[in-house]
Amino acid sequence: MGLFDKLFGGSSEPKEEKALPWIALTTIAQLDEIEKLSATKTQVIFKHSTTCGISRMVMRQFIEVFDVDANLDLYYLDLHSYRDVSNETGYKFQVIHESPQLLVVKNGIVVAHASHGAINDLELSRFV
After folding, report:
1. Contact residues for 74 (Cβ-Cβ < 8 A; gap 6+)
2. 9 pLDDT tier (thresholds 50, 70, 90)
3. Contacts of 93 (CB under 8 A, 6+ apart)
4. Does the predicted model carry a pTM greater than 0.70?
5. pLDDT of residue 18
6. Domains of the chain by range and CATH?
7. Distance between CA atoms of 119 and 100, rounded to whole angstroms?
8. Is residue 31 exposed (0-12), middle (13-18) or buried (19+ Cβ within 10 Å)?
């Protein structure tokens, strides 16, 4: 371990990343499916900008605190690769686009949404 690592808490051991049960959101047709599924199970969409440092930081924090046993479906939307899906998400669920952004869909409507640091303040367990 070098001096820099000792000063800033680095470790030579790689940190094990928690794997989340992401479902890739890649088509507009999936939005209809999300709407239907939300009648019986909470659906969550994480809109992520792969080129934004803030989005990366928020996603890392979200991964750390996410309860993998939560009874919900978790979708990942790459805004740059699927811009049309991102645009349609806003239209369909009547939420102004932000990035990063988390949408909670229940009974066909968005019951909660947040962006940036506020994403990690949402208590998803309230919506399950």
Report:
1. 20, 21, 22, 23, 44, 46, 66
2. low
3. 31, 103, 105, 109, 110
4. yes
5. 80
6. 17-121 (3.40.30.10)
7. 8
8. buried
Q: Which residues contact 28 (CB under 8 A, 6 or more apart)?
A: 84, 85, 88
Token couple for 11: 């470790």
Q: Is the pLDDT of residue 5 over 60?
A: no
Compute CA 77 distance to the chain's CA centroid, rounded to the nearest angstrom. 8
Q: What is the mean pLDDT of the chain?
A: 89
The residue ranges of DSSP E strands in the chain, in sequence order, are 22-24, 42-48, 72-78, 101-106, 109-115
Structure tokens given for 118? 């506020």
The verdict on whether omega for the bond into residue 21 sits within 30 degrees of 0, i.e. cis, is no
